[in-house]
Amino acid sequence: MRLDLHELIASPGKKLDFAFELDTADLTFDGVLEFLTPVTVKGVIENHAGLITLTGAIETDILCQCARCLKEFPTRFRRETAAYLTEELEDEDNEDYYLLEDGVADLEEIARDALILNFEPRLLCRDDCKGLCPKCGKDLNEGPCGCGEDPDPRMAALRQLLEKE
Ligand SMILES: [Zn+2]
Ligand SMILES: [Zn+2]
């Protein structure tokens, strides 16, 4: 989505709401099997005394594969994003700044960057997912598999405690 900001740039204090769906056809992420709902991007662009800021949120539902146990699970993805829009780039390396092309903002580019930069490299079905047994492949979230001692001494200690009860 491209947004003409000429009027906003000329009017300090002015705000402009935006909302659009991001095309994800050519985007792939580790651990994401499918986008279950459209990726919606919503936010506002404001002129703060000449400084143009964008704040927004990206939301979608995704079907993921757990990095540890390989289980498929759906989850809600939501990330906030913020950027500065400027007509002249003074610092090329600052990723928060986006150049306006003749007063027009490329919101799709900003949303794509935000989505890519904010993605967790390892998606887990739950924070304490125990994963699969490296020997027999059993899902250890469903219980121990009997392959012998747990390599994690904390787990062994816990098991001893539980066996005493
Ligand atoms: Zn898992
Ligand atoms: Zn096992």
Q: What do these coordinates show?
A:
The structure is a single chain. This protein has 2 domains: 2-129, no CATH class; 130-165, no CATH class. Strands 2, 3, 4, 5, 6 and 7 form a 6-stranded mixed beta sheet that branches. Strands 1-8 form a two-stranded antiparallel ribbon. The chain has helices at 6-9, 107-117, 153-164; strands at residues 2-4, 15-22, 32-35, 39-48, 51-65, 72-86, 97-99, 104-106. The chain starts with a strand and ends with a helix. The protein is 16% helix and 37% strand. The mean pLDDT is 89. Residues 66, 68-69, 71, 124-125, 129 line the site of one zinc ion.
Annotate the secondary structure layout.
Blueprint: E1 2-4, H1 6-9, E2 15-22, E3 32-35, E4 39-48, E5 51-65, E6 72-86, E7 97-99, E8 104-106, H2 107-117, H3 153-164
Bound molecules: zinc ion (2 copies).
Helix percent reads: 10-25%
Gap from first CA to last CA = 62 Å
Q: Sheet with the most strands?
A: 6 strands, mixed
**Mean pLDDT reading:** 89
In sequence order, what are the helices and strands, one letter per element?
A: EHEEEEEEEHH
Query: Which value, in Å, is the CA radius of gyration?
Result: 23 Å
Total beta strands: 8
Structural class: alpha+beta
Total domains, how many? 2
- Indicate the overall shape: elongated
Strand content: 35-45%
SS element count, helices: 3
Spans of at least 5 consecutive residues whose pLDDT stays below 50 are: none
- Ions, cofactors and other bound molecules: zinc ion
Descriptive key words:
single chain, 165 residues, alpha+beta, 2 domains, 6-stranded mixed beta sheet, two-stranded antiparallel sheet, 3 helices, 8 strands, 16% helix, binds zinc ion
